[in-house]
Amino acid sequence: MKKSHRQSSGFTLLEIMLVVCIIGLLIGMGVKMMGSKIDDAKIVAARGGVEGFKTKLLMYQNYCGVLPSTEQGLKALVTKPEGARNWRPQAEAGELVDPWNKEYLYVQPGTHNTKSYDVFSSGPDMQPNTSDDIGNWDSKD
Q1: Among 4, 113, 121, 128, which is most exposed with the fewest C-beta within 10 angstroms?
Q2: How far apart are CA 101 and CA 137, in angstroms?
Q3: What CATH number is given to the structural domain containing 103?
Q4: Per residue in 8-24, pLDDT tens?
């Protein structure tokens, strides 16, 4: 006796397309959820960078007797400025760049800290002197 219908042991194109679409939706949702976490991580990293510069600038001042000028900027921590005495490197060039690949900014005397200096990242919008800047005036000390 012969059977008249044929048995199928594979998946149809429609079933495969449905599974691919579901996987794509799940990946898309995961990427969207991770995007905000990545932004948060960059903000935390920028705050850490600012805190690190506070220590490096204190060491620079300890060795050289003065803080770098605004013109010398944070590069004075990497390369010896003209006329600096007892200078020692306090940072590497890669440390001068924030998580958004912009240089950290330094102003002495500061706008926010008028008796010392401001060191800050331009933040997520990458524009200095806006509300999302991350600077040493935000710290709790």
Answers
A1: 4
A2: 21
A3: 3.30.700.10
A4: 667 788 888 888 989 98
